[in-house]
Amino acid sequence: MRVGVHINRFDHPGAGPALGAELAAAGAAAEAAGLSWLSVMDHYFQMETNDRAEDPMLEAYTTLGYLAAHTSTVRLGALVTGVTYRPPGLLAKIATSLDVLSGGRATLGIGAAWYGREHEGLGVPFPPVAERFERLEETLRICLQMWDPQANGPFEGKHYRLAETLCVPAPLSDPHPEIMIGGGGEKKTLRLVARYGDACNLFASSPEEVRHKLDVLRGHCDTEGRDYDEIRKTVLHAGEAVVRGDLDAFTRDIAAYTELDIDTVILGPRTGEPAAFIENFAAPAVQRLAGLD
Fold first, then answer.
1. According to the model, what pLDDT value does residue 293 have?
2. Nearest Cα to 242, choosing from 234, 252, 233, 232?
3. Which has fewest Cβ within 10 Å: 42, 43, 133, 209?
4. Which residues, in sequence order, are CB contacts of 269 under 8 Å at separation 6+?
5. Cα-Cα-Cα-Cα dihedral sign, residues 85, 88, 89, 93
6. Residue 268 belongs to what H/E stretch?
C-alpha cells in the first residue's frame, strides 16, 4: 500500500507570504519521503467542517501548477474538483496543462460538488443534486472527448454544448490523465466510477464500510462490462491517529485495509505546515506500510 498526503489547510503561522516557501518545502519533503500522491482541496472557501470559511484557501490548479514545478515524481491532483466550479471544456484544458507541465503526473479528481455557501458567496450557480450528477457525467464525457485526438468536434448534451473539443497540446499521460471520481454514493457515484473512472476515492470510515462500497463498485463494474481490477482504489484517512500524529495507532487502523486491494492511503492532516507533517509522520508511514502484508 502506497502513501499520499492531502494538503487541506493554508493557515500557516506566517500567513500568505509564507505559503509559497511552505508548499515548495512540502513538495521536496514528499519526494524525499517517497510519497506517491500529493493533492490539494478544490474549494473557494475553507470547509466549515475543517474550521471556518474565512480561513485561507488557495485556488487549486494554480497551487498544483506550483507544486508541479517543485516536484518530479509524485502524482498531483485535486481531491476533488466540484463539477460546478469550471465549465467542463475549460476544466479539461486546465487538467491537460497540468499534465503537460508536470511531465504526465496529473490526475483529474472530480465529484458532484456539495458546498453551497462558497457557490452563493462568489456567485457561482449551484443546481440541485440530481442536476449536478447529470452535469458530472456530461463533464466526464467531454473530458474524454477532448483527450481523444481523433474526436475533435461538437458535443451536444443536456447541460453543455461545445462547438469544438480541440485540446492542443495533448496530455502526456497515455491514454489520458487519470480520472479519479471521489465519493461513495452507491447508486450514482460508484456507477460513474465503473463507467468512466480510472480511480476512486473513499473515506476510510471503517474496513467493513469500505469493503461494502467496493462490493457495490464491483457490481456496477459487472453491469457496465468493466474490469474491476483496472480501477485504482484509494482511501482518505483523516482520523484522529493522523491528526495526533500517532504512527502506531495509524498502523493498527490501516492494517485491516490491506486485504481490500487499496492501492493508496491518502493522509489528511489538519495543519498549515504540511512539510513538517510529511517529514515527521508521512515518511515513517511509507516505511510502515511497505512492511504490511
1. 59
2. 252
3. 209
4. 5, 8, 238, 242, 243, 245, 277, 281
5. positive
6. none
Interatomic CA distance for residues 30 and 33, integer angstroms:
5
pLDDT per position as a tens digit, 143-152: 999 999 999 9
- The letter for the amino acid at 83 is V
| Owner of C-alpha cell 470510515 | 205
CA 102 to chain centre: 16
Mean pLDDT of the chain: 96
Question: Residue 260 is placed in which grid cell?
Answer: 481490500
The answer to whether 269 touches 242, Cβ cutoff 8 Å, is yes
Give the span between the Cα atoms of 147 and 165, in whole angstroms: 9
The residue written with cell numbers 482504489 in the block is 233
228 is written with which cell numbers?
474491476
Is 274:26 a contact under the CB 8 Å cutoff? Answer: yes
Q: Where are the alpha helices (DSSP H) in 110-206?
A: 116-122, 129-146, 189-196
Residue 132 amino acid letter: R
| DSSP code of residue 14 | T
Spatial separation of the C-alpha atoms in residues 42 and 45, rounded to whole Å? 9
Please list, in sequence order, all residues whose beta carbon lies within 8 angstroms of the beta carbon of residue 154, skipping any fewer than 6 positions away.
161, 162, 163, 164, 165
Please report which confidence band the pLDDT of residue 51 belongs to, taking 50, 70 and 90 as the band edges. confident
Residues 6+ apart with CB under 8 A from 186: 213, 216
Q: Is-cis flag, bond preceding 175, omega within 30?
A: yes
Cis bond before residue 125 (omega within 30° of 0): no
What is the distance between the alpha carbons of residues 170 and 148, in angstroms, rounded to a whole number? 9
